[in-house]
């Protein structure tokens, strides 16, 4: 299964319907067409309905659709981004699955266990029940919603017609917002499947090499695969930025008032997306501990041989029968480099670049808020003051 291709994204009812119509075979840019179709369904009717009711462009009071940055960020940016990013993420995850089946990581004898694990993940990907739950959760708020309320307290917005939802508001609550929730929930379901895979992976029987140059026992590729879910941090950052723009524009909030929210989001999103890798910590801790015991014994033998050879009053007690027993300074230096690599082996397959990559995705959409909080001239002046 792994050697012939394995996909975490291509599956489920929607993919089967597209495959049955031949769309997956005829179009190389299917994700772009799907994104445009969803964007047209979710946003175009809102534009027409708001234009007809006078709530499309800015007006004397209230929040029009063109000024609702949170809703526009959700529909115009986040929704198509989730669709377009799926094939790219799937291609990079596929490379991780191929490397996972390498004999250096999972031996040929244990490969059936890995195949069984991936088969169970595929059943979860293709099962109808998870997608049915996602559909229910996407439309549940509209089904059980109470009396409609404005998006911001005290601010009349384009969704309302007096104390009831307008036609645009009904479309937003019953079509646009549930479509966005459904796509996002499908992404999180894939994330949960990946997390379940990492949780059960140690039971397969991994062959870890503490002296591996990646500093993670040979599992560094799993940390790089985790980067593919950074799009969730990016989408969340877009939503947070849109909500903060609404707060600043209509409620008079300042960037200083929102600093804890913004900083907490970047840290929290990074931790949530990296947390599944901690499921691999137990086997990595055991591999590192056993390797240090073994290398400590080798180091003691090599140090004794080196001391006996180079001390003027001592002589080797037995002839050298391996490279470690020659007592050469170069061999000792090489062994010391290997030992230090084992000692520095991480107990989680994540490095600072993975953390930085995910944190940048979370923080990037928040950067325009700085330009809103201060003018470009003021920002440049402050930068020059810091640098010069």
- What composes the largest sheet? 2 strands, antiparallel
The residue fraction in helices comes out at 55-70%
Strand % is under 5%
- Output the structural class: mainly alpha
Question: What form results from the Cα inertia axes?
Answer: globular
Number of helices: 15
Distance between the termini: 59 Å
Task: Report the order of strands and helices.
Answer: HHHHHHEEHHHHHHHHH
Across the major sheet, the strand order is 1-2
Average pLDDT across residues?
83
What does the radius of gyration come to?
28 Å
Low-confidence stretches: none
Our count of domains comes out at 2
Number of strands: 2
Write a structural description.
- The protein has 388 residues and is an all-alpha fold.
- The chain has 2 domains: 207 residues, no CATH class; 174 residues, no CATH class.
- Helix content is 67%, strand content 1%.
- The protein contains 15 helices and 2 strands.
- It has a two-stranded antiparallel ribbon.
- Helix 4 packs antiparallel against helix 9 and helix 9 packs antiparallel against helix 10.
- The termini are far apart.
- The mean pLDDT is 83.
Provide the descriptors you would attach to this structure in a database record.
388 residues, globular
